[in-house]
Write a structure and sequence with these properties.
The protein is 51% helix and 20% strand. It is an alpha+beta fold.
């Protein structure tokens, strides 16, 4: 193919997305840590699916619009660090497309270089041996090759891009010792290569398709979106502006299955949408929300993400926290969180989830507590999207850190005072967790067997044991010292009350500390432990 127009670009994207969908479990299996959270492939798949879904909804075959729509869809649907980086690659790609209606090999190469640069720019501390290395080395190598082969066609360029991406991926264990020890390549880089391979297949005349069972599952995940319901009290200006047909038509550009009821100055609305944040932004022009409910229709990953009443009067501060488990959600609400977004280690919220959550809070300043290192980038990406509120993302990497930050919040403080106080509280927390290994592996010289319980301290596996309670007690011994004053023990779904009591007795017998035991009902992690 000499040049690619918008229609061909769409088909190539679908081939890449199909390839990613069909191989995402292989990519998940590459995760280094043997914890049951291998979500890299799933996060990248859901991110790309959201972009493709938006392109499909647009119906456009104009290259600039397709590229821009894809970028926006991927940005809002981005989940996890790998999904955010993938969205940034195509954000840079889209920016380089500009208003071009066709791309030849040279133009496509320039777009790939732009995507690589944008991805690096989005990461505060880029790490080599990851998806970043794979996109940079492959884009740069293919660009240099193209200088020596200026007559090359797109399929020839893509073949070189894929071969170098594969070579770069194979080198990732040499750049990251943890990959070499686990005898795997980088999962994010593998996901990107899978996308590129799908692109190449299309350009070679054999686009990747998926079986109906896989296709229906992925399309459902990408297109099911959200069911959003809200009650809106019209302002005096809103009463003047409101016309049901106009309101309905505007919502029709953002969603489907619209139900509207007007009673005096109250509008009740239900809509199915992929972009609940945009719906809220539109509706807020007419008045103030008195209640909002947003359900993620993909119940396997995100049950009801938020169901909260909304304060009609604007306030100074709001807090968004991420947590999984009914007990943890209630705990965060008790500690002043306005909205709790469902999510955690095995289900990372998307950028759009944070945008929607922020839209539910009538506050000038909103703190976001991601409570997981793999969610921070999506939260920060959402902060960049939200324009009408001051969003402060505090880099909480654990539930104990998030709870401590909430406790330290004081509505009488200024933004700066609260930010400083919450950061100080975060830094004073040691975070531990107990979970089980899903495979045999070696991490930092420690041999781990499937089924072992692992004690994880601030992100590092520090011990293993066949017994859950003994693993928790040994972990607490690692965490506590003479300066420790408080131990917070959060009981997970698979830990019994008896298990929890045995751990409590161990702490009371061995340490002069206050112990706070909470039922978190969180999945995956038998215990979450904080020591201050």
């Amino acid at each position: 193919m000499e040049k690619m127009n918008g229609a061909a670009f769409r088909q190539m994207l679908e081939s890449g997305c199909n390839n990613l969908n069909s191989r995402k479990e292989e990519i998940n299996a590459l995760n280094v840590f043997p914890v049951p959270d291998g979500d890299t492939g799933t996060n990248m798949s859901l991110t790309f699916n959201n972009g493709i879904s938006e392109v499909t909804k647009s119906g456009s075959e104009q290259l600039p619009l397709v590229a821009k729509t894809l970028s926006r869809g991927m940005l809002m649907g981005a989940r996890g660090n790998s999904g955010v980086i993938l969205s940034q690659i195509f954000r840079g790609f889209s920016a380089a497309v500009g208003d071009q209606e066709e791309l030849d090999a040279a133009a496509f190469s320039a777009c790939m270089l732009s995507g690589s640069k944008q991805a690096y720019k989005a990461v505060m501390r880029p790490v080599e041996g990851t998806i970043l290395t794979v996109v940079r080395e492959s884009a740069e190598f293919a660009s240099v090759w193209l200088e020596d082969h200026p007559e090359a066609k797109l399929d020839e360029y893509m073949d070189i891009l894929c071969k170098e991406a594969k070579a770069s991926l194979d080198r990732t264990p040499d750049l990251l010792p943890v990959l070499k020890e686990a005898r795997v390549v980088d999962s994010g880089g593998s996901g990107l290569l899978t996308v590129f391979d799908g692109f190449r297949a299309f350009l070679q005349g054999a686009p990747v398709t998926v079986g109906e069972n896989v296709r229906s599952q992925e399309v459902r995940k990408a297109e099911s979106g959200y069911t959003e319901e809200f009650i809106l009290k019209l302002s005096s200006q809103g009463k003047h502006l409101y016309r049901e047909d106009r309101f309905r038509n505007s919502l029709g550009r953002l969603g489907t299955d619209i139900r509207l009821v007007l009673e005096d100055d109250i509008v009740k609305c239900r809509v199915s949408t992929m972009t609940p944040g945009e719906v809220l932004t539109f509706a807020q022009r007419y008045g103030e929300f008195t209640r909002i409910q947003i359900d993620n229709n993909n119940e396997e990953r995100h049950p009801s993400i938020i169901d909260e009443p909304v304060a009609a009067e604007e306030k100074e501060f709001g807090i968004i926290a991420v947590a999984a488990g009914d007990g943890l959600k209630k705990l965060f609400r008790d500690y002043r969180a306005d909205v709790v977004v469902s999510g955690g280690q095995t289900m990372n919220p998307s950028t759009e989830d944070f945008v929607a959550a922020a839209g539910m809070i009538n506050a000038r300043n909103i703190f976001i507590l991601p409570n997981n290192g793999n969610i921070i980038m999506a939260a920060k990406q959402a902060a960049g999207v939200i324009q009408d509120k001051n969003i402060i993302v505090l880099e909480t990497r654990s539930i104990p850190q998030g709870l401590s930050a909430c406790i330290s919040f004081d509505p009488e403080y200024s933004v700066e005072e609260n930010t400083d106080a919450m950061k100080e509280a975060i830094s004073a927390v040691k975070s531990g967790s107990v979970t089980y290994a899903i495979k045999d592996t070696t991490v930092e010289g420690r041999r781990i067997k499937r089924g072992d319980y692992m004690g994880i301290l601030d992100g590092d596996i520090v011990l293993t044991h066949r017994d859950m309670v003994k693993a928790a007690c040994r972990l607490i011994r690692e965490m506590c010292d003479e300066d420790s004053a408080v131990v917070t023990l959060i009981q997970g779904k698979d830990a019994t009350d008896e298990d929890c009591e045995r751990v409590r007795e161990f702490v009371e017998k061995n340490y002069e500390v206050d112990i706070d035991v909470q039922k978190g009902a969180q999945p995956v992690y038998s215990f979450l432990i904080g020591v201050e």
